[in-house]
Amino acid sequence: MTDSRTPPTAPAEDERACRAYLNLVAPGCDPVINRAIGECGGIAGAAGAIAGLGIALPGSLVARVRALGGRDGIGRAARLAAAQGRRGVRFICPGDAEWPASLERAFRFAALGVGDRAGECADTAHRPVGLWVAGAALATGCRAAITVTGSRRITDYGHDTTRRLVGGLSRHGVAIASGAMPGIGHLAVSAALAAPARPAHPAVMVLAGGHDSIGDHRTRRLAGQVRACGGTVVTEYPPGTPASFARMLARNRLAAALARGTVVVEAPEACVALNTLRWAGIVGSVAMAVPGPAGSRWSTGCHRAIAEGAAQLVTDWRGIAELTGVADDHPRYHGVCGHTGDRSGVPGEYSREELAVLSVIGTQPLTYRTVCAATYLPPAQVTRALVNLHARGEVDCHGVWWARPGSVTDRATTAGGGCGSRSNPIALGRQT
């Protein structure tokens, strides 16, 4: 498997045009488009087949193909992307220098089908065909990012807690990612921009519609501030696409995948923010929640997530940093709570957690619970190590079993199920 740190190869312009076309035909992550890519041999084959109506499509997509000009649609998409680029909104693709490695790692992990409740989201747990980006390079902000989300309604407790968490993370070089939702999401981004010692890339704002279709004036103003302060505004929806509830839920998948971890500060039962937490489990990001005051109905969703093991309990920025390793390479973090840096001279630049996991996974396959017990590491740190090691090809996943490549035994394939198993070895609190 290719190392996630391998320098990317930029896609050819014809592939970029095909990706832009598929994005226009079906904005967001459409299962029809994903199936077409698989059945038609890739991006170019899918774009050509769809433009020529050579495959069966739902009526809504047929109408969209015709509206884009049929076979001329691919050229039209290329011209639109070029025009948007002149306006400061660029269309980026996998292989571009600013395409985040975190997306590749997250959706490779999601494809294993072993994340929390992964089977329920198999049709949408795919990386975008492309992204529309404004502001600083997206990959820069996602190298060390934490998604912060929560309720639209903020209590004094939620306000103070969010500012305290974000302030501590920002001071230690961490970018704050969030959806463009009023409430905790807006507050987290605003606090990141206002931090006295913020990083050069302070925030990543993820939209649920096109850049030109931000309806709320506060969100529109905040997006402008993010760009002006060196951050990035990103969406998988092309220009002219209005935000909707369904797109908001799909946006949550992107917000979780871009960051190393997701923190929910305040969320009542059935809050949309809990959907982002769910996506964090699917894509292998660290899911975290802040407990609220006893009896507060604005934190019941957080309390349930913690109680059921769907989220790790955190109360300050240090806890977030320890679970995710997000500040490990930042000089201000060295020495805090005895921390000496995560990758200081270790062989192959493995983190301490990765070395610990590699030391226990040998020729015999192990379950996730066994790895946790043998390494004495918190589940979230084991999850992060397994995600990173799998992305680099150092470990393989076979059903509920983890093993070194080439060391799979009959035990792994018969007792644990095949590689396509929907078993869930790393659902925190429900380990196998």
From TrEMBL:
Domain Smf/DprA SLOG, first and last residues per copy: 95-322
Region feature Disordered, mapped onto this chain: 412-432
Gene3D superfamilies: 3.40.50.450
SUPFAM superfamilies: MCP/YpsA-like (SSF102405)
GO BP annotations listed: DNA-mediated transformation
Coiled-coil parts of chain: none
Family to which this protein belongs: Belongs to the DprA/Smf family.
Xref: PANTHER family: PROTEIN SMF
Stated name of the protein: DNA-processing protein DprA
Taxonomic path: Bacteria, Bacillati, Actinomycetota, Actinomycetes, Mycobacteriales
